[in-house]
Amino acid sequence: RIKNSGKNGSILFNAEMNGSVNRRHALEQDLRRALQNNEMEICYQPLVNTESTALHGVEALIRWNHPRYGRLSPAEFIPIAEDNRLIIDIDRQTLRDACLHVKALHDAGHPGLKLSVNLSPVMVERDDFVDHVAATLEITGFPSDCLQLEITEGLLLNDRSDIVEKLESLTRMGLSLAIDDFGTGFSSLSYLQKFPISTLKIDRSFVQKLHQKNDDACIVGAIVSMAQGLRLQIVAEGVEHVSQFNYLRSLGCDVVQGYLFGAPGTMEELLGRYPGLVSSGTAAPE
Ligand code: C2E
Ligand code: MG
Ligand code: MG
Ligand code: MG
């Protein structure tokens, strides 16, 4: 509903609508060129071990440095890339480059550092998906037991035996699977037994309201105890305040991620934040 129903109000509204349609159209056009011109950049966000506050690993998060619109969030362009299937190129390139970047950190004296990469359902559903991941590990020399792939609940919604088989092939290769944005998708939890999942990432919408709403504390507490019962690792996203961190630690949450420990940054920024990365094994938030 438009609040201001006067003439000016509706003209403004239409102009805005038109602007966002034009922008989406422009982004669609620009996406192919962006990949060829290296306008995509991988940022890394620290994943921190809750107990020790040592660096557990990093999550690769793609950014688009658009020549006209500046740095774009994946939330804006991933849906477009999924529609025109360029997401396949984006996800392949991100997986390969992130493996190379983190392999370099392993070689520089930090073996065992974990890498988490987001994958679109469009990518996972392709017939060549498992072979492609295997080939990427081979080409990059990245150790499979350091790689975690993040998928969303939607992919697991229907009982697709081909998806179960694919995910089992991946875990046989030694890598692990996480459910991203856990708690925002579907109410059925039966898929947790059907699929070889090792990690649940609690969506930041629950974490962010921890200090305001008792309901969210109950939901987070229930997710953590369920995960413990199923022997799943639990990662909390969007941790911004010490109070949230302390609460999650008291629940027994394994790993945390959020602005409290660092926003996603370029590999250079990550190394600046965690200078220990190239020599010693531990790091702490500033
Ligand atoms: P995600 O995988 O759930 O990633 C976490 C998002 O939360 C990131 O947004 C991150 O910047 C943000 N975040 C982390 N800590 C905090 C915090 O403390 N406070 C707040 N407010 N936000 C925080 P980002 O980077 O914009 O990415 C959005 C989504 O785009 C990701 O959500 C992921 O689903 C998708 N994505 C990112 N990179 C890729 C990619 O290479 N391939 C695919 N298929 N999807 C990607
Ligand atoms: Mg993710
Ligand atoms: Mg997430
Ligand atoms: Mg999320």
Characterize the structure shown:
Helix 6 links the parallel strand 5 and strand 6. Helix 3 runs parallel beside helix 5 and helix 5 runs parallel beside helix 6. The protein has eleven helices and nine strands. By secondary structure, the protein is of the alpha/beta class. The longest helix has 30 residues. An eight-stranded mixed barrel has the order 1-2-4-5-6-7-8-9. It comes from Pseudohongiella spirulinae. Keywords: Phosphoprotein. This is Diguanylate cyclase.
Rg measurement, Å: 20 Å
Task: Please report which band the strand proportion falls in: under 5%, 5-15%, 15-25%, 25-35%, 35-45% or over 45%.
Answer: 15-25%
- The portion of residues assigned to helices is 40-55%
Structural class, please?
Answer: alpha/beta
**Count of runs of 4 or more consecutive helical residues:** 11
User: Order of strands in the sheet with the most strands?
Assistant: 1-2-4-5-6-7-8-9
